[in-house]
Design a protein that fits this description.
Rossmann fold, single chain, Helicase, Ruva Protein, domain 3, seven-stranded mixed beta sheet, alpha/beta
Length: 269
């Protein structure tokens, strides 16, 4: 039995932990995968790392041994107590924050790591895109979710998540992680993903860009002309329709590229 599996089971038994479904709690128990994830961070002694969903703190300690500081955010008060009293008590370079990352201002760091709680995958990505400044992030998502991030325009998986993420990041799929590497075992495999900030839209248009795709991508299979009518109403649509290139209006929403959306944004603003 490896270190992570043995230590996780010991702590679960000692503290009577019952993983909470509402927090999508599932603890990494494979030592080799943990080492790979830490290696993906390419840690330096000067790095400050934000870890989102620190859990029991076992991986947090591995990260802290190779960098200047870790800011560990965890929403579960029981797990926070365990980290403070036991698993991370010997470290003086770890700051533990109890709270919901979606409600917290993201601190200044240069790297981000998270075994992402599945129920916050999309909102966390949007928050990182808009609020955070960092060199890169290593995030673990459900496999199918990860593939949606890199989907091409026109493909079955391409949607609001795809275009939004690609507008703000360069994306690389790093490693498939079998579901049995977690406890409790989730329903699907996971994927480690690297996100490097790489803005493809002007900063002053970021909010309007996200608002536009939020309005029209629910109608991803409709023509752009139809989606705009639904999103803005017939009256407003006819005011800006004449300024939109015909080839864009005749596309399906799922076929729109980042540059297409920027053109739409300029014509309806």
């Amino acid at each position: 039995m490896g270190y992570l599996r043995e230590e996780t089971m010991r702590l679960i038994k000692k503290y009577g932990i019952r993983p909470k479904k509402k927090y999508s709690q599932s603890f990494l128990i494979c030592d080799t995968v943990a080492r790979d994830l830490v290696n993906f961070l390419n840690l330096k002694e000067t790095d400050t790392v934000l870890e989102i969903g620190a859990g029991l703190g076992l991986l947090t300690g591995m990260i802290a041994e190779k960098c200047a500081k870790v800011i560990a955010v965890e929403i579960d008060s029981l797990l926070v107590d365990i980290m403070k009293k036991e698993t991370l008590s010997k470290y003086d370079n770890i700051e533990i924050i109890e709270g919901d990352i979606l409600e917290i201002r993201i601190p200044k760091v240069n790297k981000v790591f998270s075994n992402v709680p599945y129920h916050i995958s999309s909102p966390l990505l949007f928050k990182l895109a808009q609020d955070a400044k960092f060199e890169f992030a290593i995030l673990v998502f459900q496999k199918e979710f990860a593939y949606r991030l890199i989907a091409n325009p026109g493909s079955k998986s391409y949607g609001r998540l795809s275009i939004a993420t690609q507008a703000f990041f360069d994306i690389e799929l790093l490693k498939l992680i079998p579901k049995y590497c977690f406890y409790p075992v989730p329903e699907v495999d996971s994927m480690a993903v690297k996100l490097v900030p790489s803005r493809k839209i002007p900063e002053n248009k970021s909010e309007d860009f996200l608002n536009l795709i939020r309005k029209i991508f629910p109608y991803r299979n409709k023509l752009v002309s139809k989606a705009l009518k639904i999103a803005y109403g017939n009256r407003d649509y006819f005011l800006f329709e004449k300024n939109i290139p015909r080839n864009l209006l005749s596309k399906r929403v799922r076929e729109l590229t980042i540059s297409d959306v920027l053109i739409l944004l300029d014509t309806i603003s």
